[in-house]
Each structure stands twice: as C-alpha cells, then as structure tokens.
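Q: Start with the shorter request: fold the first protein.
A: Done. Sequence, then structure:
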Amino acid sequence: MKKKLLFCIHNYFLFKHYILDLKKIENDFEITIIISNYLVDNLDREYENIKKKINFHNLFFVPYYNKKFERSLSSIFLTHKFINELKKKIKFKEYDLCISDNNFFIWQRIILDSLLSKNCKKIGVMTGALTLETSTIKDLLDHKNIKDSVSKIHKLRKTSGNRVREKKLLKKISNIKNKYYDIWLDRVLLSYFFHSKNFKYKRFDLNLLETDEFDKKIVFHYVNFLFWKNCYEKKENVILSKHENECYCKNNKIKKSIFLSTNTWHDKTDNEISQQVEKITNFANKKIDKISSNSKLYFKHHPQEPKKNIEKINNFIYEKLNKNIEVEYIDKELSLSEIACNFSFAYGMLSTALIDIKTSCNNIKVYCLKSLGEKDFGTDYSLKMLNEDIIFYDDTKDKLDDISNTSILNKTVLKRIKFSEVIKSL
C-alpha cells in the first residue's frame, strides 16, 4: 500500500522546482498537493498543467490572496472557510508525511499544528537562497552561534536595524490596518471561529518563518545548509539536497547566452535602472561574439516583475545594446528547468536564478557579474552563492574575479542527496 504524502507550498513558482521530484516518487506515494493562489493567474489552467506532469491524488489552491495578490478582508475569511471545508474532503490524520516550505502562513500553520496526526512526519523545505547579509554568512563560516542574533532577522532577510521605515502617511495607516487584520482577525478571531483555537505568532515565526523544528529540514543551497545547521538543535536533521533534472543536452551544443533578471528593480529610480541595464548591455556588447554564435541576446525577466518595469527595462536595453545584437525576450513564466538546455551560457546579477539554471543543466556555464552583485552586497557578494559552481566575473575589468573563484571557501565538497531519495527513505 502506498504511503500518503501531503505537499504544502505557498509560492506556486517555487512549487515548479519540485515537479520532477514528485514525478519520481509518484509510484511510492499517494500525493496530495496544496498550494496558495500566490502568482497563479488561472487556477484551472495551472491545475491541468500540473495534472499533465504529476500523477497526484488531490490538488487544491488556497484562496489566500485577492485578485491583486493582496490579503483583504474577504481573502482572509475565504482562507479559513476553505481550510474548514477541506477537512471534509481529505482525511488529514491519515497522512504519513507532510512536506511544507514553512510554518508561518496561517493555512500551513493550521494544517501543521492542528490537523495532522502525531505520527505524521513533518518535513520542512527551503527552496530559494537565503537573503541574509554577508556579515551573517561570515559568522556562520567562523562557526559562531547566531541563535542570539536571530531575533534581529526579519523573515529570513536582512537585520531589522537596516530596514527602511515607511514615510508616507497613508501607507503607514494601511500597514497598521494590515497588521491588525493579521494578528487579531486572522490568527485569533477567525481562527477561533473556524478551528476552535488561535494561531498567534510563536517566538521565532517572524524571524525564521518557523519556531518549532521540523522532523527533517531539507535545503538546496550550501549557505542555507550552514544557517539551518546552526539554528537547529538536532543538527543531523538538516539535509543538503538537490532536485532532479532532465538535462538532455551535450557539451557541443550551439553557443547561446541568456541573461537572467531578478526581482530587485521595483525600488529603483529610472536612473538606477538605466545604470544597471548599462552594466548588462556593456557585458553583452563586449562578449556577445564569444558567448553567442548568432549575435543574439536572450533575456528573461523575473516572474514577479511588474509590466511597467519590464517596459522601462526593455526600452533601456534597446537604447544601450549595440544595434548589431538582436534581443529576444523569453517567456518569464517558463521555469528555468524547461529552458536551461537551450543555452550554453547564462549570466546575471546575484540571485537564486543563477543556481537554478546551473542545477537544471549539466553543460551550462553560469556567470555572476561582479558589478551587479558588489553594488548591493559589497565586496563579499560571492559568499551569497558559496559552493554552487557559479563563475564570478569582474565585468568592469573584463576578467574573472580571481579572489572569489579561487577562495578556499568555494572548494568545500559536500554530498547532496536527491530530494526523491530523502523522501523515500523516511
């Protein structure tokens, strides 16, 4: 008899990383998938897309956000109503394993803390790379206990002392209202009404997106591995893993290069966007003949990039790119695993995307441009992607960033166990 697996993930785009993994274990488990509607424009279409790729038993989308991807009064109510109705559709007590990317969002918290049996193994996963400051990574490398400084981290991001405070009055009022909705309406009043208990934030929820340790914590990046090993009391429960890939290409594929953008443009002025694009086009103008056999630049925007920003970025690219170089924009909704083998080179600013495309293809070379990474993260920018087989390139001096590439820190070898093998072993 198959074991029963419940897979809960909040971000639909991150869920795509697990499609091949779930495909690998579909004969061993009866799989139920629950995803929030974050970044899902058409629920029916995405349901059918997943159905073509995975043999699942159930698939549900939680109505966590409204059409503007905001937490409104109606969406808060609908989330609780949906979970309450879900109790009648599936038997939560029968699941042997529950995989979740956090214990923070209210719908996942309700499932993990109140609906599963005590015998269900709870597996935490962290898909993307940490957005911590490089100083914290240095502390990890120096084997310092960072537990005392965890309270200064906000949702696994930079320390609270560096957070930008809101200055606009209307935005401040809106933030206060949303905080009230979250803390009292969502986690106390409606929680009591629908589930007969509250789900107030626990000690480290707003810092680590979890307080109680999962039975196992599976991560996919070396820096994440260092971080969670430091945080967890039972360090042996933190596992460095890797996703399945479907690499079909060979080393002799045609030279084609792609630039991978990240979601860091939204808080930049037009002048800052122009300067950033100039660094991208300068690299392409100088290197296109070496990294592309057809003098063509392929460019992929981040899936969350707003339309108005895309138009600005594209206009600046048109202005600054040599006219003999053609540019083609790749559908931003495509996962990197779907397109990785089409390219021999990928480059971009420091982001999880560079790691994702590298792990999706065995024969692609991936470059992180120093001018883009150093500006936001300082001279130690490369620590963010430590031991991920990324090439750091000093595009200002037009040469490899020797210090980052030859660092002894970048030579640590750790075995990464396939995600599917970890799950099967539990």
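Q: Next, the second protein, separately.
A: Sequence, then structure:
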Amino acid sequence: MFCLLASLLSYWLTVFAGPLFYVSRAVNVDGSIEVSVDPLRSTLLQIALFLLVLLLGALWAFRSMTRREIACSAALLILPMLAIVLAQLWVPSFPLKVSVFLSPFYNWSGSLSSLLMQCSLPLPAAAIISQFAPLLFVPFGRRQA
C-alpha cells in the first residue's frame, strides 16, 4: 500500500511541482516563447523523489515489519505490475487508456526505469528491472519476528 501511495504522491509532485523545477521558458526577440526541459534537472528530480520514497519507507513505514513480511508485501505489488509491463511491451494492441490510467500507480518505479534508461539500458530491460524496486525495502526490515 505504501508503494502505491508513494507512487501517487510522486506522480502529482512530478506533474505539478516538476515543471517549476526543470522546465525553462525563454522569450525570443520576435516575442515567441520557447519552452524546453532541462534533462539534468529532470534527472535530479527523479532521483530525489525515488530516494525520498525509499528513505520514508525504510525509516518509517517498514521499520516494524520483518524482512519476510516486506518481501511478501512487495511480491503482491510486483506480480501484477510486472504482468502489466510485460503486456505493454509485447502485446501490440495494448490499450493506451489502460496505460494512462495506471501510470500514477507505478510512477515511483517508473522513475527508476527512466534513470536506468539514461544509463543506456534498453527500454524492455529497464522497465522489467524497475518493477522489482519494492524489494529495495527488504534490507531495512527487522531480521526476525
């Protein structure tokens, strides 16, 4: 549940606060407005949001859970999202409406996917690897019950 709420929060922060941080506007001599995105600032925002969610989950939300509980909880989120990503990648006529509807719910792992692609990983590999992001919370759990 934490990952879904964190994804919604990072989605809305990216949509509303993101343009204030990484979109630049310039007025040309002829009066036209040129809008561009700074890729470095965009990457820094994605890294900051990803680390913020990871730290909040690790130090607050999952601190009282055991590692096994966190892994089981992460698997419940990973399996359906991995199935959706695989369908998006390899089903030719996957409905765009479904992808747009679900995008706020896996925005947090999507930022990891974007970062992996900026490190020259191909899209399918980055999308599949990023779905396992909830497992990053496992080392922060308690060792035993």
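Q: Describe the second briefly.
A: The two ends are 21 Å apart (CA to CA). The mean pLDDT is 84.
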